[in-house]
Amino acid sequence: MPILEMKVPSPGESITEVEIATWLVSDGDWVDKDQTIAEVDSDKATLELPAEEAGIITLKAEEGDVVEVGGVVCHIDTDAKRPEGAGQKAEEKKEEKAAAKETETKKKEVVAEKVESSAEKLGNKSASPVASKMMSEHGIKPGQVNGTGAHGRITKKDVLSALSGGIDAGSAATGWGGTRDERREKMSSLRRKIADRLVSVKNETAMLTT
Predict the structure, then answer these.
(1) Burial class (CB in 10 A: 0-12, 13-18, 19+), 26
(2) For position 150, which CATH number holds?
(3) Which of 22, 49, 82 marks a domain boundary?
(4) Which residue in 44, 165, 180, 201 is deepest, having the highest Cβ count within 10 Å?
(5) Which structural domain range is residue 29 located in?
(6) Distance between CA 177 and CA 140 in Å, rounded?
(7) In Å, how far are 139, 146, 180 from 165, measured between CA atoms?
(8) Which pLDDT tens digit goes with each residue over 146-201?
(9) Which tens digits make up the pLDDT trace of 103-134?
(10) Burial of 15 by CB count in 10 Å (0-12 exposed, 13-18 middle, 19+ buried)?
């Protein structure tokens, strides 16, 4: 049979559908037998989808699509002739996707390090009760005040000095050294399942206090 229909295999018991997380090949690419062509998310794990035969692939589902177990995700023309340099192109695309994923991971790590570093800087500064009250009233962050007390403790005098120097609450948002960038991403089926379980536990578990 020249056209092979590739269907979603069963990842395990009780799982009826999966989500196409990432295609590692493009429509019309040559694929080798057992080459990983996609990553799919189930309720329990992320799995790799290998090509069942070699040939030209035609995608039948998009990234983010939810496909039932047994559903067709692509066709492979097994009668097609292997084009020159097909293996090299597939390897280049795989490396590009891996590099993009690594870059995204590094960006997240940098942001996390900045937040952690800023938290440490602010957390290490103690303040007297009077100084804390004054900073709260004026919307001042500890990192904006130079503590002159013992071990860098912030005193009332330090807060007054900062206020007289022109510090205001508007600069508090930029004083911590972090980022307020927002990014919205579609949740994978695995993350949705975890979120559903957490909400279920919160709603169904008795919360006892003493």
Answers:
(1) exposed
(2) 4.10.320.10
(3) 82
(4) 44
(5) 3-82
(6) 15
(7) 15, 12, 26
(8) 888 887 788 888 888 888 876 654 444 444 445 566 777 777 777 777 888 888 88
(9) 877 777 776 665 455 444 445 567 888 888 88
(10) middle
